């Protein structure tokens, strides 16, 4: 029984993150930020990298200050790198989220896109372009579904705003 609970715990964390995302999308940004911060305190800086990546990724969107948003997006990218490399806390000290590395690969385009947008807000156009190129490169990992289309469209919009890149499907 305890083994089964350990296997479901990571799903429970992602479900809780998703519930707060719904609260944020419903318009309660302040309450969402507080709940995300409570989850962050619970997960801790050595928690599962997928959980930290996902949570920081969404927590960034609740920030009022662009520098704070950037800091959370950088935390998300750092956690994604840990998940990809299998670093962080030893596996016996934390439950591994199911499909963590694959799930993080699918987040890379959005992670880099958010960083590019953060840098635009802060007036750092070269850093924005760097992350925009990384977002475009990582977009190959996206599936041909609604999420994939939305992220590709957002990349194209930001590229147009910065005056670079070609729309998806037009690369020679």
Mind explaining what this structure looks like?
Helix 1 (2-25) packs antiparallel against helix 2 and helix 4 (66-85) runs antiparallel to helix 5 (100-121). This protein has 172 residues and is mostly helical. The protein starts with a helix and ends in a 10-residue tail after the last helix. The longest helix is centred in the first third of the chain and has 24 residues, at 2-25. It is built from 7 helices and no strands.
SSE order in H/E notation?
HHHHHHH
- Total number of strands: 0
Low-confidence segments: 1-10, 89-96
Q: How many distinct helices?
A: 7
The largest pleated sheet is described as:
none
**Helix/strand/pairing class, anyone?**
mainly alpha
Task: From the alpha carbons, calculate the radius of gyration and give it in angstroms.
Answer: 17 Å
Apparent shape: globular
Q: Beta-sheet strand percentage?
A: under 5%
> Roughly how much helix do the residues carry, as a percent range?
over 70%
| Cα distance spanning the termini | 55 Å
Oligomer: single chain
- Overall pLDDT confidence: 85
